């Protein structure tokens, strides 16, 4: 019987500590609002994973919730419930598959965030959307970035989410914390990023795969 893939056991090929971090002055809530209001040229680094699924491609959205804290902006992340059929137990953004009644990817992201973690749509100021990212499970995901009002409340759906936590945006926007991995060989080879939090020596949360890829694209966007 084949053992399930464990990303924590995948060798680290490189750490991108040669790349500059996004300057702190670009990571304030005001600076983030200004950046999303501008049309600066930039290129997403990661767009499509090699599909490992037989299902037809489906559209989905995630919310990238940014929180203003006294120590700086943080990113709200979730741990998916262990019994889910896709990406069980993995670190992710709140989000999910688009429904026929959703009018836009933004509406999908806000609806899913309210369903999964109880974050009300009126507590989110949407800044904009990032380019789509296609996962190994054939979901074409639109990341929607928004700033959450400070007086928000959460109500987790335990059938979807087992935990929520925050990571400083400055940590995630520093490539010194971006590690490269590879799995498989030949035509089966694929690469992925990881961003262990709080450290690679003692990660309580292993951010990797599609979530890390979308954060890497956010790094490229904010660096432009």
Detailed description of the structure:
By secondary structure, the protein is an alpha+beta fold. A hairpin with a 4-residue loop joins strand 7 (133-134) and strand 8. It starts with 11 loop residues before the first strand and ends with a helix. It is 18% helix and 33% strand. The longest helix has 15 residues, at 209-223.
Q: Which strand-content bin applies to the residues?
A: 25-35%
What is the ordering of alpha helices and beta strands?
A: EHEEEEHEEEEHEEEH
Unreliable stretches covering 5 or more consecutive residues: none
Number of domains: 1
> Shape from CA axes?
globular
What distance separates the N and C termini? 46 Å
Radius of gyration: 17 Å
Detail the topology: elements first, then pairings.
Layout (H helix, E strand, L loop, with lengths): L11 E4 L13 H9 L20 E12 L2 E9 L10 E2 L2 E3 L7 H13 L6 E6 L3 E2 L4 E10 L12 E8 H4 L6 E5 L6 E8 L7 E4 H15 L1
Parallel strand pairs: 2-8
Antiparallel strand pairs: 1-10, 2-3, 2-5, 3-4, 3-9, 6-8, 7-8, 10-11, 11-12
